[in-house]
Write a structure and sequence with these properties.
The structure holds two protein chains of two kinds.
Chain A lengths: L1 H26 L13 H28 L2 H33 L8 H14 L1 H6 L4 H28 L18 H44 L8
Helix pairs in contact in A: 1-7, 2-3, 2-6, 2-7, 3-4, 3-6, 3-7, 4-6
Chain B lengths: L7 H42 L7
Classes of the chains: A mainly alpha, B mainly alpha.
Chain lengths: 234, 56
């Protein structure tokens, strides 16, 4: 079922990413303040938003796992967190490149937005070691779900705390007073956000398919090993 | 904190680097997943064809 969905999803993602890139480089105007460097915004911010939403989504999936006991929710949460961490690496790298071009530094330690994202990222980097440190599959899934819920709740709290911080050099994107984009930039940004989100969903499906095949393989191997072997002819 | 906008020839490599990072992450991830999936599907076919074959 999931395999059949993969091809159309992949094609739609590729098409939307191509449209997004075309809009970024041929449609969106140059930023009056930052110039060409501002084009990094169209990849950096959508990756950050999708990664943070992924962490929160995983928290919701973990709640569903604890409520229903259905291990598929735990597997989904695991895949979503895994992909959000990969996007997080992209956010940190593209953010550093942008900071270097814009501020002249690869990293600014007194900037709350940067440091808070790093804290969230490092927090989720402990998810896999914690998970695989527990051998019993039931306990492993339960503990991983508890972690995903607590860490998932930390993400919006962290976001609000940063908004309340007084001094920041990082530009505000989604806000009531600042960060208002002109129409063509807003459209480009929204298409980029949609493209990254669709790519995220496609990659989640790909990894879930891989996990499903892996489980099937393991089941078949167990069944084969349990069945009596035919006598060996000499 | 923000400095004046970089000219295009200086800003270009930074923008290119950011998009290359994104592309590299996606391509690396897809390549790893595709390799793993292909290997597993091959093992699955082998197992389904010859269930009595001993495990290596």
């Amino acid at each position: 079922m999931r395999t059949r969905r993969l091809l159309p999803l992949s094609l739609a993602s590729a098409a939307l990413v191509a449209v997004a890139l075309a809009l970024v480089f041929f449609y969106a105007p140059l930023d009056a303040d930052q110039g060409f460097v501002q084009k990094i915004f169209y990849i950096h911010v959508p990756m950050a938003i999708v990664a943070l939403c992924g962490f929160m989504l995983a928290g919701g999936m973990a709640i569903a796992h604890l409520r229903t006991g259905d291990r598929r929710w735990d597997l989904r949460a695991y895949v979503v967190i895994h992909l959000s961490i990969i996007l997080g690496i992209g956010v940190l790298l593209t953010g550093s490149i942008w900071a270097r071009a814009s501020w002249g530094h690869w990293w600014v330690w007194n900037e709350p937005t940067l440091v808070s994202f790093l804290v969230v990222f490092l927090l989720y980097c402990t998810y896999q070691p914690l998970r695989f440190a527990i051998e019993d599959p039931e306990r492993q899934a339960r503990s991983a779900s508890v972690f995903a819920i607590v860490a998932g709740a930390f993400v919006p709290l962290n976001f609000v705390a940063i908004r309340l911080a007084q001094a920041y050099t990082h530009p505000r994107v989604l806000g009531a007073t600042g960060g208002s984009l002109p129409g063509s930039m807003r459209l480009t940004f929204l298409v980029c956000l949609g493209a990254v989100a669709l790519l995220f969903v496609t990659l989640c499906n790909l990894e879930l398919t891989a996990k499903r095949v892996s489980f099937r393989l393991r089941r078949l191997r167990r069944a084969r090993d349990a069945s009596p072997q035919p006598p060996v002819l000499r | 904190m923000s400095s004046p906008a970089l000219p295009l020839h200086e800003a270009g490599p930074y923008v290119a680097a950011a998009y290359v990072v994104f592309a590299a992450l996606v391509v690396a991830y897809v390549a790893i997943m595709a390799t793993r999936l292909t290997r597993m599907e091959r093992s699955l076919e082998d197992l389904e064809d010859d269930p009595a074959e001993p495990q290596r």
